[in-house]
Write a structure and sequence with these properties.
Two copies of one chain form a homodimer.
Chain A lengths: L6 H9 L3 H13 L4 H8 L7 E7 L5 H14 L4 E6 L12 H9 L5 E6 L8 H14 L4 E6 L4 H8 L3 E6 L7 H8 L5 E4 L7 H14 L10 E3 L8 H17 L1 H28 L2 H15 L5 H8 L3
Parallel strand pairs in A: 1-4, 1-5, 2-3, 2-4, 5-6, 6-7
Helix pairs in contact in A: 1-2, 2-3, 2-6, 4-10, 6-7
Amino acid sequence: MDSAPNNSSLIDRIAAGDTRAVARAISKVEDFSADAAALMKQIFPLTGRGLVIGITGAPGAGKSSLVDKLALHYRRAGERVGIVAVDPSSPFSGGAILGDRIRMQTLGLDPGVFIRSMATRGNLGGLARSTVDAVSILDAAGYHKIIIETVGVGQDEVEVVKAADVCVVVLVPGMGDDIQAIKAGIMEIGDIFVINKADREGVNTTEKELEALLSLAMRDDLWESPIVKTVAPESKGIQELAAAIEKYREFHLTSKSGAGRRRAIARWRILELLRDRLVAQTLESESASEKLELLAGEVASRRRDPYSAVEELLGK
Amino acid sequence: MDSAPNNSSLIDRIAAGDTRAVARAISKVEDFSADAAALMKQIFPLTGRGLVIGITGAPGAGKSSLVDKLALHYRRAGERVGIVAVDPSSPFSGGAILGDRIRMQTLGLDPGVFIRSMATRGNLGGLARSTVDAVSILDAAGYHKIIIETVGVGQDEVEVVKAADVCVVVLVPGMGDDIQAIKAGIMEIGDIFVINKADREGVNTTEKELEALLSLAMRDDLWESPIVKTVAPESKGIQELAAAIEKYREFHLTSKSGAGRRRAIARWRILELLRDRLVAQTLESESASEKLELLAGEVASRRRDPYSAVEELLGK
């Protein structure tokens, strides 16, 4: 017998802001467990109150430190903050390696801050889906601000950040010669740009380059993405960043383009979930899992091509 | 009537190294068109001859320049080189923005080099799948070296690079304070480490840090990942890099762990394809696509949760 409480009492505890219930629910969506769907259906009506802030940028940009200071800023205003750190490392071996332990040093044991690192787990992947589900759970639990932090600028990471209400892109001065290419990719997703480590040499050049690029950006709304300069360890510029986020929130709520964006996010979210669900269904039986291993061996030794293997798995 | 030749003549032309046929086949797998499966089944038996080299690293590490110089090195030895650049930008709007045009300046119109940027396209996503399929097509077309270059260090990018025969991780001196976290993630995938821009300050510190991290790495084989220092624009270290790649190729072919890795790659490749196939099947009818749009609107306006939307799509 499973002595765990059923979903409805779990939902009640989440709605009451119980952090253990929140952690347990996030594990369920991460594992894509059998009752995750029922849970998320009950969670959904409780969401839509918190502000979801996506923070992305290249490795080395100092995102973690920036997120921590921003969280502290909100804590001082009496708000509860959830942080979901997407860890793209170790897709095969799984596991968020450093994140949580390091964070705990700065945000400590503050009960008003919930931190969770999300990593890929096994077959059913779905880092993007489990991350947005985790955000919904934190939203339902009454966290006022939910920050999604992504290490890296990969496809999944970008999509997750785009699912936020506000997307903050973090740069640093003098990032080298393929910064142009990166900027071209992230320019269209940044609602706010941060130049962190703004006490470093080259900050004016980076700012000018960024302004030039932003002047070419084709946004489908009238928002002009501001550039905020920060020095996270000294908390410089954090207040300005929070103000820019608040300003965008107001803009986003009232603009017509906000509706289009919410629709694109919803569409993406359905597709991610559909993908995970279909794969889980196909592989749920033990015999299907065994067949997968067998077919992997055949493809590895070139006795079979991957396309035929998939047809075999689908029973065609 | 479609005047295009059928797959079997396309296969013949690919096998003969016809670049237009190669380009056309890659477009088919990118679009996941109806005959992509039949095409790839015929391609597969022709593969396994070329060496697939994955090159990844943080933005700003100078990967493109390094790849170009490495390609030139192989060209001088009379080998044909295929380059597949994974462009994680613009998942919503699609499109590889800068890549190809910039590359053309250095590698020019050399018919022995084939360059293709891969980007996400619409619903059926599958950047990882289409990239490994493109690599197979280049392999079948007789390219001796196929280089996969990824901008960013995201989850998909890492997985694609892991599907290569040799994985090269590119770092630069003094990348800032969360380098530790990045290294922890990529340490286990790097067969060869490059410190590019090795004429810069801090190269010795970075090398020592990297050596320390590598000494802790738990590889499941006896390979000791070498560190190669390069200055790509001056072609410094390129010969050493090529030698390290060749050395790893010999090791990989003879080691027992190579088989385990090929199996993990095959398994991952089947799963990626399964995912794409299942989603394509579910959404192939016009009515399903319309339903998706309708449901996205309902989820966006919070009248429905994403989980119920997926069940509706699946006709449950």
